Amino acid sequence: MRYYLDTEFNGFGGELISLALTPEYGDQEYYAVLPLPDLLHPWVARNVIPYLNAVPPGLNNGPTSRLEAATEIAHYLSGDDAPVIVADWPDDIAYFCSLLVTGEGDMAPVGSLRFEFVSSPGFSTAAISEVPHNALHDARALREFMLRWEV
């Protein structure tokens, strides 16, 4: 199954702040907020941080460590023998993969994953996301766009 990915991070090249995966089918979504960096990029402070908790109850239990998030993602994907992670921005895939590295020579036990990078002209999460710059809502917007675009 495909899982649509979005991340929020602290400016260009900055630390990962949040990550979401929303499945192609069903409503079992994954959302994590990581501990915030000490110094926030001003744009991120204005446009991302106020919306971190704009998710359904139970999906955000406060800041999660990188190790906890990697472990949770491995568990989240464990029931799927051929997960495909879909993103529309290269950094989303890079941040996702970096999060799976849990130590020197160690990674979360996610098994085999495929990635699909989609160039999506005409798509703007800011234009169609219910809560722009929230990773969960942006991942949902990407899913909806892709499912409509493929028809």
Please write out the topology.
Blueprint: E1 2-9, E2 16-23, E3 30-33, H1 42-47, H2 66-77, E4 84-87, H3 90-100, E5 101-103, E6 106-107, E7 114-117, H4 125-128, H5 135-149
Parallel strand pairs: 1-4, 4-7
Antiparallel strand pairs: 1-2, 2-3, 5-6
Helix/strand class = alpha/beta
In order across it, which strands form the biggest sheet?
3-2-1-4-7
What is the global morphology? globular
What's the number of structural domains?
Answer: 1
Radius of gyration: 15 Å
List SSEs in N-to-C order. Answer: EEEHHEHEEEHH
CATH fold assignment:
Nucleotidyltransferase, domain 5
Strand portion: 15-25%
The residue ranges in which pLDDT falls below 50 over 5 or more consecutive positions are none
> What's the CATH class label?
Alpha Beta
What does this structure look like?
- It is a single chain.
- The chain is α/β, with parallel strands linked by helices.
- It has a single domain, classed as Nucleotidyltransferase, domain 5.
- The protein is 32% helix and 22% strand.
- It is built from 5 helices and 7 strands.
- The protein has helices at residues 42-47, 66-77, 90-100, 125-128, 135-149, and strands at residues 2-9, 16-23, 30-33, 84-87, 101-103, 106-107, 114-117.
- The strands form 2 sheets. It has a 5-stranded mixed sheet with strand order 3-2-1-4-7. A two-stranded antiparallel ribbon has the order 5-6.
- Strand 1 and strand 2 (16-23) form a beta hairpin.
- The longest helix has 15 residues, at 135-149.
- The protein is globular, with a radius of gyration of 15 Å.
- It starts with a strand and ends with a helix.
- The mean pLDDT is 93.
